[in-house]
Predict the structure of Peptidase S74 domain-containing protein.
Amino acid sequence: GAATGTTLSLTGALTTSDVLHTAGVTSSAAVTITGTLETSGDATFGGTVTGAGAYVESSDETWKTEVEPVSATESLEAVMALKAVTYRWNDDAPNADKTLRELGFIAQEVRDVLAEPLQSAIVRPVDTEGHIGLTYSKISALLAGALQEQQRMIMELKDTLKLQQQLVDEQQKQMELHEERIRLAKLEKDELRRSIELHREKIDSIEKMHGGHFDFSSRMEKLEKSHEGQLEVIQQLLLDPVSIWTNARSKVGDRRGGDNSGGG
């Protein structure tokens, strides 16, 4: 049945499958409860709390009011300000296993880096002497916000990188086109140089055929004057100077012969 009292002291085990109402329980042995344990006050454990089920905190929307979102940026800034440490409990710590090395935060450091309302939500008093503790489960909400902000920053950087890569690719295409133009211009230059050399060789050949007495430049001037306006002759001379020069010489000879006969 039910037991009601202000203080219950046991030297052996306490087993109950019903409801136990008491203002204080002291036991040096195990306390086994097969039903539901409800408390409206605080529960302090100096050892490890082990359970096969889940630890569930009430979070129903219908029980909440004055709901205000915490920005992802604020969450990230808060998480970045936290400094994880390892430590051991000293002799003044109540109900603590002093043989283990723990991992966590220093409550005073967390209090100093968090602004309200985050500070009062995470940093809580643990006794009436001014000692404080942390609600570690609530830090997970900050971690979620921080992760979202980091993911947003990553996506933004990816978009920027993609745009920069597109610019680099476009510049690369322009460089390749420019290099192709340079290559074609060089080919044209080489071709022009070979053409000039070929014509120079033809001119040298003509001068050699005439014992070096053939002045190509003066001949060109005379041909231009005698065939004024006939650019075709000049172009043909550049293409085949030997045959053109032979024909021109023949014509000049014929003209001279006619002058001599007329003078006789």
The longest strand covers residues 3-5. The chain has seven helices and ten strands.
